[in-house]
Design goal:
homodimer, Quinone Oxidoreductase, Chain A, domain 1, 2 domains, six-stranded parallel beta sheet, 28% strand
């Protein structure tokens, strides 16, 4: 177990992306480290940009020995990845496995043999040596596959609710709401009686959310979408939105509905709009086109980027520990994830497979199993 | 002095704007109130929307007796002024005059005979009764004309600097920077050694700012604008922008330059961009077209509305008092304003004059003198 197969990404300043499966040494664990045999690592939307950058995946090709995938990056797009050019970098944000070796500290030793969820950025590998702090220890009987998505989606969903409370909002609007993350958020909101307005774009997504007890669902493909959205926002008093889409007018539509609700009883000039801060946090970029804001919502609004790690830094470490424990306790209920495909490390480089997992289709979710 | 001529605005639900010059009673001052004979009230960009809403001013007409101006409001625009329909409302955000009567309290009595700047929303009038708290008492020898713009521009410029400090930024980017407000901000920044990056759109505006000692001026009409902007932002470390324009891509260009500067020494993925919060506050709407954000600046950015009164509410009352005193002491230096035209209350309703003061041209500034 001194070496491990691991996937790496590289973009050259000449404009070529390479994904390679390399054999690397596994480090000996220091006192507060453990070595994890990785058995399950999801392919999340947030893995796509580190893996591929702006490469043209339609032209991706496997080398003859199938140990390297290459794809061209257009010269004018190289600027967007300038900080990483000519560097060989690991991939795979999160995953889970079994602790097979541990450093001398009691905290590390306590994890021996256990299933842990890990956040490391280098999870598309057979083995990894990580600090104990990068792990969530799971309860007896939880499998690596069940624990594979312990961090990104569960912590994001929980943090949205923490963020709501921290900034004094009383309801949440969520876009692209039928995602795995959206389903977790709905379950949390069900448990804690938080009004959640789910924006989806088709009937199938509506059905996914209805099945888990969603009360407010607005379908952006419906003719009455904006009226429905207004009604839900007015009924709940929502002034906070988490937007996974980013591009287009959805953030602006949400703010407009919040403003209409917030000013419905005002008389007089109302030159500057409603007093409550109306906040949209853009946490994803499913639509990479520009965000268009019509600013028809007075002067008290904000559209901001949102990043899990930077939000977690605003919480007390004790509170973060409580969230970890909640994730471990509810990994098979609130935070359950389902996967449609389970693939090997080598499969990650298969051009046809890439096109599938890069499509980010609702309901389709890939799991990498490095033991395959 | 029991009655006063005063301008009022009215938009009917049938879609007609009316501006009228009416005779109204002046209230007797209560203990903490004073009556001010208004001698000078500026026409600020922030007065335009309350006065005219979305009326089509190209079709404005004076009635035969010249006591009322009317203009049509297109039906589809009535929604944007729904809270004020069918109400007769006063206009004129700020101005200055002489205190001619005062309530019994020592604070009110102390103002008798003095020049005061007033913030009231009803300053296009001969007389007004206001609370002492709505006044800035000026020093001996200051005329109402010199004191006319004591609130909106001086407090906004001072608040931008307060805001910068409160949120830990070290420099400011300002758009439409050759305005009266922009010049005040430059003078404050000169005094306090704060790097200020002025964005203007022509040579004349550059010259205005150069003449008062501006170091960083970026002309958006120049071919090298974005390179110049980057250089200035990189040199100053600016992560805060106050934007008077609102529409178009300027906010996005500023954020892009901040991001490029913030990540110039980073290596590796840089998936989520620079760590510093990059903040644009939109405080005006010189361009009413949508704001377009390309989001090429990682996940730590924010574009927000900004409103003077809501910002001032974040400061200690003591600090606000200090700002008032600074304004009184520096009304003829840091906070000096110049006016190109002085008009009567009746002139405010003249269709040709309206087109001039509504043009918001740099260098052109109108003052209403109700004693004319």
């Amino acid at each position: 177990m001194t070496t491990s197969k691991q996937l790496f990404t590289h973009i050259s300043s000449e404009g070529q992306l390479s994904i390679s499966l390399n054999e690397v040494e596994v480090a000996q664990p220091k006192p507060h480290q453990v070595v994890v045999r990785i058995e399950a690592a999801p392919i999340n939307p947030s893995d796509m940009w580190p893996m591929f950058g702006p490469a043209n995946l339609a032209e991706a090709k496997l080398n003859d020995d199938k140990a390297q995938l290459t794809a061209p990056v257009h010269e004018r797009l190289l600027q967007s990845v300038r900080t990483r050019l000519d560097q060989t970098l690991p991939i795979g944000n999160e995953g889970a496995g079994i602790v097979v070796a541990a450093g001398d500290s009691p905290e590390a030793q306590a994890l021996l043999g256990k299933t842990v969820g890990v956040l490391s950025g280098a999870m598309y590998a057979e083995y990894i040596c990580v600090p104990v702090q990068a792990c969530i220890a799971h309860n007896e009987g939880v499998t690596p596959k069940q624990a594979a998505s312990s961090f990104v989606n569960p912590l994001t969903a929980l943090s949205m609710v923490e963020n709501m409370r921290l900034e004094g909002h009383k309801a949440i609007v969520h876009t692209a709401a039928a995602s795995s993350l959206g389903q977790m958020l709905q379950r949390i909101c069900n448990d804690e009686d938080i009004p959640l307005i789910n924006i989806v774009r088709n009937k199938e997504q509506e059905d996914i959310l209805k099945a888990i007890g969603a009360k407010y669902i607005c379908n952006s493909s419906d003719e009455n979408f904006r009226a429905d959205l207004y009604k839900a926002i007015d009924e709940t008093g929502a002034t906070l939105c988490f937007d996974a889409i980013g591009g287009g007018e959805i953030a602006s539509h949400v703010l407009t509905a919040m403003e209409l609700s917030g000013t419905k009883e005002i008389t007089g000039f109302n030159t500057y709009g409603s007093e409550a801060n109306k906040q949209v946090y853009v946490y994803g970029g499913l639509d990479m086109s520009p965000t268009t804001l019509n600013r028809a919502y007075g002067m008290t609004w904000s559209v901001s980027g949102w990043l899990l790690n930077r939000f977690l830094a605003r919480l007390e470490p004790k509170r973060v520990g409580e969230l970890y424990q909640k994730i471990a306790n509810e990994i098979n209920t609130t935070f359950t994830s389902t996967y449609t495909d389970e693939i090997s490390l080598a499969d990650v480089m298969d051009p046809a497979t890439i096109l599938k997992y890069n499509a980010k289709k609702t309901g389709s979710k890939f799991l990498v199993n490095p033991t395959k």
